[in-house]
Amino acid sequence: MHQEDAPVDDVLMIDYPEEGEPSDKGKAPLVKEQAPLVQDHAPVVGDQLQIFQEALREQQEGLERQRTAHLNLESKVDGLVSNVGSLNDKFDQLLAFLKKP
């Protein structure tokens, strides 16, 4: 059934604003006062910058502590690897000694 064939009673009518008529949907209310100047926000921005710098410094200190701990752990692992190598050499010597007639 085509649009032209539909009876007028079955047509859904939607109320659209007339052309040139303003719509208030989705619009913020008009504010007469002007937004404060950037200078008014300077202390807040300065405080935020100081907080950010402090957080960054703390993060860098934490990373340095992790790096130090990692290097310490790495040296301990190297020592263990060396000890295992030494034990393997001694074990090989012991096996060679036991295989002698």
What does this structure look like?
The chain is 57% helix and 0% strand. With 101 residues, the protein is mostly helical. The longest helix is centred in the last third of the chain and has 58 residues. The chain is elongated. The mean pLDDT is 79. It has a domain of 43 residues. The chain is built from 1 helix and no strands.
In short:
The protein is an all-alpha fold and 101 residues long.
Q: What key attributes describe this structure?
A:
single chain, 101 residues, mainly alpha, 0% strand
Shape: elongated
Percent strand equals: under 5%
C-alpha end-to-end distance? 107 Å
- Calculate Rg over CA atoms: 40 Å
Helices and strands, in order, run as: H
Structural class: mainly alpha
Number of helices: 1
Count of DSSP strands:
0
Helix coverage percent of residues? 55-70%
What is the residue-mean pLDDT, rounded to a whole number? Answer: 79
**Low-pLDDT segments:** none
Report the sheet with the most strands, covering strand number, pairing sense and barrel closure.
none
